[in-house]
Write a structure and sequence with these properties.
Alpha/beta hydrolase family protein
């Protein structure tokens, strides 16, 4: 099992069941089409939890999976800094 998968399993096991049910319900019904000026959409093309569909993607990360915010943070951080100009808001 990959380190990313081990981390995902660990996070799931340690999560509050009420929160997990709420999150799954809302994720399943999210339309993904809401535009907001402060939002930056970064998506991996290998995300099996939220496949690319019905989403407005600003940055597509080749090979990025669902945990790429953790496993590929150094690649993603410059996109966030660029978008928000390094401001803390």
């Amino acid at each position: 099992m990959s380190e990313a998968r081990k981390l995902a399993v660990s996070m799931f096991r340690e999560s509050d069941p009420v929160f997990v049910r709420w999150a799954c319900s809302h994720a399943a019904n999210w339309d993904g089409l809401i535009e907001h000026p402060d939002r930056v959409s970064i998506h991996g093309d290998r995300d099996s939890v939220f496949p690319i569909r019905r989403q407005i993607i600003q940055h597509l990360i080749p090979g990025g999976d669902h945990l790429m915010a953790i496993t590929r943070r150094l690649e993603i951080l410059p996109l966030l800094i660029e978008r928000h100009g390094g401001n803390n808001h």
